[in-house]
Amino acid sequence: MKILITGGTGRIGANLARHLLAKGHEIRSFVYPGDAGRAHKLDAYANVETIVGDLRNFDDVTRAVQGADAIYHLAAAFGGPFDNRQYLEINGMGTINLLEAVRAHCPHLHRFVYACTEAIYWRLEERIPHLLGKESRYFEQPITETMVARYHQMPYFLTKWVGEELVMAYHHQYGVPATSFRFSTVIEPSEFLDETGRPKLFLFRPIYELYRTQTSADPAEQAMIDEIKAQWTGEDCFLLSRNPNGRPHRQQFCDVRDIVQGLLLALERAEAVGQEFTLAGAALFDWGKLVPYLAERFSLPYVEARIPSPNYFEFDLSKIKRLLGYQPRHDFHSILATAEAMRRGEETEVIPTGVRFVPAAA
């Protein structure tokens, strides 16, 4: 098949392209003009065509979908120099541009796979009032696909939800064979370690830098912020982050290789059509268990502190396992081992983020 990947040179897109090529497919990579530094990331591979274009430009999108048998819509405005209007234009109108182009030019499309986000589960109406952007991410029970929040935080979370609504509406109204995946936070192993070779997620410095200038009108929150500041000695260490109720942070991530596994299954399994799935991995990180282990492994002390923003959740993956046969493989130790191998310059099965990758056989 000829497969269009929007965002084909990104951390997920490039790794997906590599696996699709290995299965004999042809790839068309649609790359945003502002991402020109990575536009030629896949040039070393045969059967890859790169198109530079903007999702907001219907002519660009129409050119990209011509002749496509399947589409992975991974591209989105995220963390870039965009305002709220631009987020909606790229993630919302960009998605409807793709869908309209599919209606006009791809009557026999095999699959349209949309990349959504776990963030549509975060409950904006329960966000912490004095710490902007800290919506509630504390769930006593595993999160299922039915637990989509009523409201979503602008700009990224809301506009990705808008995209999913459009994709599934076009499936039900116009018969577009669509699937949506709600990605948990993705880990690409080359980004997992800091410059000293230690896992960034568990270090104290980023948390200290986040809160060192913050204050809160809530005495309980201010006490937590003061506690964080008081623990900082000027030397980094590991941090056993705790929720305001004292329970250690707990979060389920997904290695990019497991993301790719799920995306491939969407192409291969008819059961994927018309469904939304949470796509999370085997990387269920519990700070209470991992931080003491890391402190011993890296011979670095750790401190404990309560963090005002709650973080405690895991996902119920029974739907994606049952319908698609998905089985995540990469837990914390697998990610760490791969990250350290990449840091040593060894070849792994992962295409690193942000660089042009040349395979050994090229």
Under CATH, the homologous superfamily of the domain at 2-188 and 252-283 and 314-343 reads NAD(P)-binding Rossmann-like Domain
Characterize the main sheet: 7 strands, parallel
Proportion in β-strands: 15-25%
Euclidean distance between termini CA atoms: 23 Å
CATH class of the domain at 2-188 and 252-283 and 314-343: Alpha Beta
Sequence of secondary-structure elements: EHEEHEHEHEEHHEEHEEHEHH
Question: Strand order of the main beta sheet, please?
Answer: 3-2-1-4-5-6-10
Helix content: 25-40%
What class, by secondary structure content?
Answer: alpha/beta
Q: Mean pLDDT, as a whole number? A: 93
Shape: globular
CATH architecture of the domain at 2-188 and 252-283 and 314-343: 3-Layer(aba) Sandwich
CATH topology of the domain at 2-188 and 252-283 and 314-343: Rossmann fold
Which spans have pLDDT < 50 for at least 5 consecutive residues?
Answer: 129-133, 356-362
Radius of gyration: 21 Å
Q: What's the helix count?
A: 10
Commentary on this structure:
With 362 residues, the protein is α/β, with parallel strands linked by helices. It has a domain at 2-188 and 252-283 and 314-343: NAD(P)-binding Rossmann-like Domain (Rossmann fold, 3-Layer(aba) Sandwich), CATH 3.40.50. The chain is 35% helix and 17% strand. It has 10 helices and 12 strands. The strands form 3 sheets. Strands 3-2-1-4-5-6-10 form a 7-stranded parallel β-sheet, with helices on both faces. Strands 7-9-11 form a 3-stranded mixed β-sheet. α1 packs across α7 (256-268), α2 packs across α3 (84-105) and α3 (84-105) runs parallel beside α4. The longest helix is centred in the first third of the chain and has 22 residues, at 84-105. The two termini are 23 Å apart. Mean pLDDT is 93; it is low at 129-133 and 356-362.
